[in-house]
Amino acid sequence: MEQKTLLIECPDSKGLIAQITNICYKHQLNITRNTEYVDPDSGRFYMRTQLEGIFNDHTLLLDLDRALPRGSERQLVGTAKKRVVILVTKEAHCLGDILMKVFDGSLELDIAAVIGNHPNLQALTEKFELPYHFIDHQGVSRVEHEQLILTQVAQYQPDYLVLAKFMRVLSPDFVARYPQRIINIHHSFLPAFIGAHPYRQAFNRGVKIIGATAHFVTDSLDEGPIIKQMVSNVDHTYSAKDMAKAGRDVEKNVLTKALELVVEDRVFVHGNKTVIL
Amino acid sequence: MEQKTLLIECPDSKGLIAQITNICYKHQLNITRNTEYVDPDSGRFYMRTQLEGIFNDHTLLLDLDRALPRGSERQLVGTAKKRVVILVTKEAHCLGDILMKVFDGSLELDIAAVIGNHPNLQALTEKFELPYHFIDHQGVSRVEHEQLILTQVAQYQPDYLVLAKFMRVLSPDFVARYPQRIINIHHSFLPAFIGAHPYRQAFNRGVKIIGATAHFVTDSLDEGPIIKQMVSNVDHTYSAKDMAKAGRDVEKNVLTKALELVVEDRVFVHGNKTVIL
Amino acid sequence: MEQKTLLIECPDSKGLIAQITNICYKHQLNITRNTEYVDPDSGRFYMRTQLEGIFNDHTLLLDLDRALPRGSERQLVGTAKKRVVILVTKEAHCLGDILMKVFDGSLELDIAAVIGNHPNLQALTEKFELPYHFIDHQGVSRVEHEQLILTQVAQYQPDYLVLAKFMRVLSPDFVARYPQRIINIHHSFLPAFIGAHPYRQAFNRGVKIIGATAHFVTDSLDEGPIIKQMVSNVDHTYSAKDMAKAGRDVEKNVLTKALELVVEDRVFVHGNKTVIL
Amino acid sequence: MEQKTLLIECPDSKGLIAQITNICYKHQLNITRNTEYVDPDSGRFYMRTQLEGIFNDHTLLLDLDRALPRGSERQLVGTAKKRVVILVTKEAHCLGDILMKVFDGSLELDIAAVIGNHPNLQALTEKFELPYHFIDHQGVSRVEHEQLILTQVAQYQPDYLVLAKFMRVLSPDFVARYPQRIINIHHSFLPAFIGAHPYRQAFNRGVKIIGATAHFVTDSLDEGPIIKQMVSNVDHTYSAKDMAKAGRDVEKNVLTKALELVVEDRVFVHGNKTVIL
Q1: What are the residue ranges of helices labelled H in chain D?
Q2: For an interface test with A, which of C208, C230, C235 has the most A Cβ atoms less than 10 Å from its Cβ?
Q3: pLDDT of residue A93
């Protein structure tokens, strides 16, 4: 008995669930968990179905393609671990939490490599027997730097890139190479405090709650589809530095939680939003 | 176009979703929201389906009865407001929040009457032009008191009884008259601090978080299926009285949230637990 | 034995706490709770001291004035309830929660009157035997409208104005009349979604958490010192309307919590921030 | 300029703060942060004062001893890191988070060694160049096992022992050796689900929130003074195993947060409670 997850996104129409579940039934597949969502504004239908049984992927997808309306996307996903390359700069906490959760089995990821524009996190990465590539951004143009990263990334053929406090803005060309496949942690409760130094901004504004946001990267800075947000209470005794320190726990927790959702194939991108089934 | 919600609970079997959604499709009903759950331990299947269209309730249910396995329960629920009778003692905050939310349209409930074993909340109830029955527990036996309440309740034929800080324990005989239809708010994070004076208990234990629990009432004190829980941070500066005061907000918020879930037909009782779809 | 609270704000200097607490001791006053804070950036010192004893306000303040550095502000506050006028538009939930909490004794406020630019909340206000002034903004200029409100407010001589979902922006002239004495609830997690329709903005951005902010009103829209913020989780199934509904609980809870802090004389304004002792 | 923290616990009496702060002033010490608390039930006074200046510890403490009432405890703490020995069993997440936070500088601790009753976490510990002592509990009596641990611990002379998911109950004799110096993480929201398998208990009870509790260890199982509690929402789809997985994040966050409070000398033990200044 195998387990696979069927992911469908298509224009909504009457009888869709019946058609899809009939096909699964015809294939003798048991549905162990099923979630659907219809977006009332766009009329898009989203469905995530965990199936159990003996799979004939080819005929199952063929049957689905016959039944589904034009403009449908469907995918049958097995249980292989997602492969990621992690990009970092100097801060250890997000990388550290991912490494630790993969190590202790909480997060089912295959970390192919870590790439840093500083050498700081090499030692940490190598503690976990993973390759670390230090690709300096100094002395090269922005375009060249990104090209060096892309070349290094390409050899690993990752499913996702994870920006674990990678403190450089990626160009639209870079982003276009991995659409909806780059996950970033922004250290604010977006859309508050877009851009640089969010904790400094938060401190100056005198907020009573700070937050962090995991999102897919798009061309527009910090405007991509949000996967997960978390917050933490602060008060007047917190300096910008204290907020940054308190924020680290939020950042790492929200990033690994977002990765968990992605790993379980629960995140659909819908325009600049996510649907999480 | 009408809107109704189909609620199904039955033993799980392969093809169930296909069968049920086929029947809906055959009846030309559109599924606007659908949620299912299979409990892996008991093998029970739960489904909540929001439907839109022209309903022929009789034939729809007949078709479902033919398709569903033995031991199934199914219900087709319209949009009529649930009718409740609220039982209270002296504290105003839970009753007050329900009254206010019904008044401002946040909570779609039909409050038939309020019954109190003290006269304290009569004035508040009558501000909202609702009948208040003061049924004193003094001078009568426990059995007689409950009988007086039951008689008063019966005339209203409520869907649910809501214990909004009703500070008396109901007898098994009383509970048996409204199985899975009595909703209580307990002022602790159950199962911590069962029974009387939970804030005093919480204070004595030196907890750093207090909570409240909305649950269905069963024979066993504070052991019924939990619908919703919420918490609030406290610290060493809180006296038992301060905790009780801070707890009031949690209590009222958790009770009205639980009522919202019940009102939307989202709560299934499964042994001593709830499944919320 | 009386109880009073001493509030001090002044430039920091060595020995301040010793000097102040010596004076209290000399006056035979017992300190039951004491909190201080020195803002490291501005070097401002804040102190809130709950005192118990027989007070000679005049000599106590005289002694303090001799001891405190230039530029000090000090205040000795008794236990009289703060007097407020509440401004509203159409939405009932924030007003309702304040009325209910004052009614049940959770919030020690003296509500002098409610003023609305719509008649909608008159009935609710009058249930609690409070005066409601409907001051229509139609058919008068903005300046005239504010003047009508100010005249009405003036007769009550309130300590604070509470904007309980008052959906009009107050002019700088109006605000200047009650500096640091107008408390507003903004229905977003500021500084995200400043201005109109924050839930619509939040929906469009696809956030996973919504919030509300209670703050003092200054000239700049939604830029005043933040007193309290709270949040609530949402997901892709929430429409803008659902977010607004879920937001109502956050709004009312954060507003009454902020009022509680103000009522207990715990809020100091420090530039565009608050210090809460 | 040095920085030290003065910790005082004594019977409350009028003028205490004045006396203490006068002594600090006489010693030319600047108070950068000060917090006090008087427990109204016991009449105990607690004070934590951050001081800056040139310290003469001996005469400062002498002056304080003259001024403070009988039954006082006072301590002047420098900025040296606390030294801890960590006890573990098999689960990596709490140990991992401490290691990572010490590594990245978020948690200022000196980890002297890790001791495990299983060999599982040796590799992880050694990644961070720390000694790991595997002390098997099999083949020895409970008393012998504890004696072996105590001997190993003794050579490090730690300030605190941290039980980072050490799954054995310590005997009163062991606990008596490190009173108020053993910190445990219990994987439930105490006092709910005392003892073994709290997630299984939580699952069986059908709770909607799980939690974790960091506390000092006393003779009574899971009854010691609570330092910190945190919670996380769950629902009917969580198996006991899912709850345990979700709980890991809560556990590690609450334990490192509690350690942070201890490291900053903010935790006073007061009977079976804590006062956190």
Answers
A1: 16-26, 57-67, 93-103, 122-127, 142-154, 172-177, 198-205, 240-263
A2: C208
A3: 97
- Chains contacting B with at least 3 CB pairs below 8 Å? A, C, D
Q: Are C266 and C50 in contact (CB under 8 A)?
A: no
For residue A69, say if its preceding peptide bond is cis, omega within 30 degrees of 0: no
Do C241 and C147 sit in the same domain of this protein?
yes
How far apart (Å, rounded) are the C-alpha atoms in residues C126 and D236?
A: 44
Q: What is the CATH number of the domain that holds A18?
A: 3.30.70.260
Asked if pLDDT for residue C221 goes beyond 80, the answer is no
Contact between residue A93 and residue D106 where contact means Cβ atoms under 8 Å apart: yes
Which chain C residues are closer than 8 Å to B101 by Cβ?
93
**A194 and A254 both lie in a single domain:** yes
Please say which residue of D77, D94, D118 terminates a domain: D77
**Using an 8 Å Cβ cutoff, are D107 and D256 in contact?**
yes
Tokens of D64: 């304080």
For residue range A61-87, list pLDDT tens digits in order.
999 999 999 999 999 999 999 999 999
| Cis peptide bond prior to B191, omega within 30° of 0 | yes
| Active-site residue, from D222, D235, D242, D249 | D222
Residue found by looking up tokens 């083949």 in the block = D139
Q: How is D30-42 classified by DSSP, letter by letter?
A: EEEEEEEEE-TTT
Chain D: closest CA distance from residue B220 (Å)? 13
Instruction: Determine whether the interchain pair D106/A127 forms a contact, defined as Cβ–Cβ distance below 8 Å.
Output: no
Cβ–Cβ below 8 Å for B100 and C96: yes
Catalytic pick from B63, B97, B159, B222? B222
Residue in chain A closest to C38 (alpha carbons) equals: A237
Q: SS3 of B132, please?
A: strand
Please tell me whether residues C59 and C178 are part of one structural domain: no
pLDDT at D193 over 90: no
Least confident range of B213-222, C176-185, C248-257? B213-222
- Residue B190 vs residue A252, higher pLDDT: A252
CA–CA dist A231, A211 (Å, integer): 4
Maximum distance among all alpha carbons in chain B? 63
Cross-chain residue pair A275–C37, CB shorter than 8 Å: no
Q: Band of the pLDDT at D180, cuts 50, 70, 90?
A: very high
Kindly state whether residues C217 and C251 are assigned to the same domain: yes
The phi, psi pair for B105, rounded to 5°, reads 85, 5
Q: Do B274 and D231 touch (CB under 8 A)?
A: no
Alpha-carbon distances, residue D17 vs C23, C25, C47, C60, D23 (angstroms) = 11, 9, 13, 18, 10
Are A97 and A167 in a shared domain?
Answer: yes
Q: Which of A40, A235, A273 sits opposite C276 (nearest CB)?
A: A235
Instruction: Name the residue range of residue D15's domain.
Output: 2-77
| Residue of A18, A30, A35 lying closest to B22 (CB–CB) | A18
Question: Which residue(s) pair with B46 in the sheet?
Answer: B9, B37
- Whether D222 is catalytic: yes
- Gap from A24 CA to chain C (nearest CA, Å): 26
Q: Is the domain of C70 the same as that of C170? A: no
Residues with Cβ within 8 Å of A156's Cβ and at least 6 positions away in sequence, in order, are A83, A85, A112, A113
Quote the number of domains for chain A. Answer: 2
Do A99 and A55 lie in one domain? The reply is: no
CATH of the domain at D125: 3.40.50.170
| Same domain as D270, residue D142 | yes
User: Residues 32 to 61 of A: which have CB under 8 A from any C CB?
Assistant: 37, 39-40
Which has more pLDDT, A260 or A1? A260
Closest Cα in chain A to B30: A14
Please check whether residue A245 touches D, CB under 8 A.
yes
Structure pTM? 0.96
Asked which of C77, C108, C142 is the last residue of a domain, the reply is: C77
